[in-house]
Design goal:
There is one protein chain. 69% of the residues lie in helices and 0% in strands. The protein has 312 residues and is mainly α. The protein has one domain: MetI-like fold, CATH 1.10.3720.10. Helix 3 (36-45) crosses helix 14 (279-305) and helix 10 runs antiparallel to helix 11 (215-226).
């Protein structure tokens, strides 16, 4: 290097100041690593509407499942105290045409309707996960045959299945659960199949195959956990659909049989006394409507929270 070049380099270095390592580390901004689940939970907790809906559903569940331990028998009749209005002594919500405590029957109907909604949705979830996962993973002729069977099941109306079951067994909660499960799993199976078809060509699935992992393990441990977002949203949104179906069938006399109670047959009995005793219809109808609204608002909040596109 010539003297002129060395002098020029010294002049350039004089224009800059070497930054110490401590200062360089201070300027480096690090972002804490947040998992997908933690990020989704943070977004959900920031959604006040979804949190309010979840809190309301918790209160409804406590009302239905814990309230039965503190109130009298919901089938007890008192023909001397029929059609008592809400606020009567000892009868907060009044009584019906047979003198039965409306609050006790409302608690029982809440427990029955929520139980059917949760049980049917869980059964449909399990069947849909297994059936859709196998169909999407294997593909080919297996997928074609399994999806053709789904289309056949979907084409049969639930009402016809329920009527056929009622000709063999009596109506009640087990019959209603069985009827709603026979066709209700198809939507979940289609969703899981679509998710598995997208995931089965990913690198981690190919790596698991190379390492010799069994097919069932790949489906249960690798594919389905990575598709949980849409599955959870579908599960949450299916619960109000099942409750609505049960209430409708009970309203027309094909669901929960009296003297047992559900939101559907309470509304049906109340409509028979309308408009003379309007509280017999509006009290279960309002609770039913608010619960349906809360489930849908919570489902919308879960959909937004689990959407990977909104992750920051």
């Amino acid at each position: 290097m010539t003297n002129a070049a060395a002098e020029e380099r010294v002049a350039i270095d004089a224009d800059f100041t070497r930054v110490p390592k401590s200062a360089r580390r201070a300027e480096h901004v690090e972002r804490a690593t947040i998992s997908y689940g933690r990020d989704a939970l943070n977004r959900l907790t920031c959604n006040r509407v979804a949190l309010a809906a979840f809190g309301f559903l918790v209160l409804v569940a406590l009302f239905g499942f814990a309230g039965s331990y503190f109130l009298p028998n919901y089938t007890k009749q008192d023909l001397y105290r029929t059609f008592l209005p809400p606020g009567s002594p000892g009868r907060i919500l009044g009584t019906d045409e047979l003198g039965r405590d409306l609050l006790a029957r409302l608690i029982r109907s809440t427990k029955v309707s929520l139980s059917i909604g949760l049980i049917v949705s869980l059964i449909n979830l399990v069947i849909g996960l297994i059936y859709g996962g196998i169909s999407g993973y294997f593909g080919g002729m297996t997928d074609i045959l399994m999806m053709r069977f789904v289309e056949i099941v979907t084409s049969i109306p639930e009402m016809i299945i329920l009527l056929l079951l009622l000709t063999v067994v009596s109506n009640g909660m087990p019959t209603l659960i069985l009827a709603l499960c026979l066709t209700g799993w198809t939507g979940m199976a289609r969703l899981v199949r679509a998710q598995v078809l997208q995931l089965r060509e990913n690198e981690y699935v190919l790596a698991a195959r190379v390492l010799g992992a069994r097919r069932l393990r790949i489906i249960l441990r690798h594919m389905i956990p990575n598709a949980l977002g849409p599955i959870v949203v579908r599960f949450a949104m299916s619960i109000p659909g099942v409750i609505f179906a049960e209430s409708f069938l009970s309203y027309i006399g094909l669901g929960i049989a009296i003297p047992d109670a559900s939101w559907g047959n309470l509304a049906q009995l109340g409509s028979n006394q309308f408009p003379n005793y309007i509280w017999l219809f509006f009290i279960p109808a309002i609770l039913f409507s608010l619960t349906m609204l809360a489930f849908n608002l919570l489902g919308d909040g879960l959909r937004d929270a689990l959407d990977p596109k909104q992750r920051r």
